[in-house]
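Can you give me the bound-state structure? Components:
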Amino acid sequence: GAVVSQHPSWVICKSGTSVKIECRSLDFQATTMFWYRQFPKQSLMLMATSNEGSKATYEQGVEKDKFLINHASLTLSTLTVTSAHPEDSSFYICSACRTDFKAVTLRGQGYWDHTEAFFGQGTRLTVV
Amino acid sequence: KNQVEQSPQSLIILEGKNCTLQCNYTVSPFSNLRWYKQDTGRGPVSLTIMTFSENTKSNGRYTATLDADTKQSSLHITASQLSDSASYICVVTPKYSSASKIIFGSGTRLSIRP
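Here's the bound-state model for the whole set.
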């Protein structure tokens, strides 16, 4: 099956520094990747949608200047946590979807049909 | 509002026993419904994926069922093993929606005891 690789698996950094996390789709092209954050014993929370060649779309409450997302190619998206603080310590997960664009809907517009989503292995960030 | 609710929140069973996890959704129409297994500290791994027209899908000891009329899905695990201890997440993708509208259930934390 398709593989999404996330690097690093874990990182410890000092408060005030920046950390970059990479997400790569290894055997398929992903025009869209997603970044999630997960606190202990909680479900995944979508932070932003990363679109290749354009600006990322952030969910409400997520600071775009703090969580910089770059999707420079069809196989790579990066999340940079800037000026990290201890409260940023969390588990960050990326995913990439295989998508098929359907040309026609009931309303006469095309839409993306996500046939499968593959997740990276996650990055445990600890800010000290 | 589109929602995906899972039950129970947590479950403890003895090794070798069977169990069934539930997922109720209000998303309609949907493109597909997926079950994922997430080990602690790891990313989710896909177990099964079903479209609207499918009733059941198996993957080894895992069998997912879908009832579109009642908007319910279940994941049945047969002859549980210690390695089945994990969180199981139900995910529904609405049809005709933007990419960010994939909806996650809160998951069921399953613990297998020897």
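A couple of observations. Chain B touches chain A through 26 residues (CB under 8 Å). Chain B has no helices and eleven strands.
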